[in-house]
Amino acid sequence: MKNARRWANPAIAVAALAVVVWRLGTGPFLAGLKAVDVRAVLAVAAVVLVTTLCSAWRWTVVARGLGVRLSVPAAVAAYYRAVFLNLTLPSGVAGDVHRGVRHGREVDDVGRALRAVVRERGAGQVVQVALAIGVLLVLPSPVHSSMPFVAVAAVATVLGVVLLGRVRGGASRWERLRHAVATDIRDGVLRRSALPVVVLASLLVAIGHVATFLIAARTAGATAPISRLLPLALVAVLATALPNVGGWGPREGVTAWVFAAAGLGAALGAATAVTFGVLVLAASLPGALVLVAERLPRRRLEGGTADA
User: What are the boundaries of each domain within the chain?
Assistant: First the structure.
């Protein structure tokens, strides 16, 4: 069962990507690759720098609330490394697991450090979804008619989680888990000094993701006005949270669908998604430099020990 769950996400992502290639051919993918230019890479690199700084800031605040020390410079380097690993390893979350485990070893508390990563990423996802729902309720888009139902479902889910958190049980395993999660969220995210930072940083990160998508759309050849592309960008960015392989899979399928539904063409949507993926990967390359830099001192130390 565990192995089945491990392979489920990559299988879903590969299947989604295969369907897009089957329906559209390889043309949009090649067009998306060819569209990438230096100006777009530099623009996205600047945006990713801002989003990484904001994400690292959010992480330090949440970690501090959970009682684990983490400096901003260390968080920025670890976040760049995590983004690069997320985009180059199959699971799509390996980088976040790695930064949680590595931070945990540094502070001698892997469990608490991993929980800080989960709470920090979870808070960011909640803010991003709330922002997307708010904008999609207002702007016309292919999903506009469904958004009132989505908003009601989201509110109901939040209320359900809050009510579930207030349920008192005995000393069962579920009760201990519920209490631990509620305590983490209260101390790491909802405390007075943390919540404004978490919300602001998450909003800036979400806006950065949308800006990156809009740059990719323009680079891929989309000429529609920003007001028309913005809701499509929000839908496409939300799709990046679905099961994927290094970010690829559902993103291309959802983007192709939403572009086609908006009358811009599925091929342009797929090309935009490919351009987006390539630009983000290029902007994450500082994470590869972090990985290399982390290994250099160790090799020197090992060489010196061997010579001695």
Answer: 11-291
Cα dihedral: 294, 300, 306, 307 (round 10): 180
Give the Cα separation of 36 and 282 in Å (integer): 10
Residue 199 burial (CB < 10 Å; 0-12/13-18/19+)? middle
pLDDT of residue 249: 79
Check pLDDT > 50 for residue 299.
Answer: no
Query: Tokens representing 161?
Result: 């989680």
Q: How confident is the model at residue 5 (pLDDT cuts 50, 70, 90)?
A: low
Q: Any residues with CB less than 8 A from the CB of 69 and at least 6 apart, and which?
A: 63, 107
Nearest Cα to Cα of residue 65 among 200, 201, 187: 187
Supply the pTM of this predicted model.
0.89
| Cα–Cα distance measured from residue 100 to residue 94, given in angstroms and rounded to the nearest whole number | 10
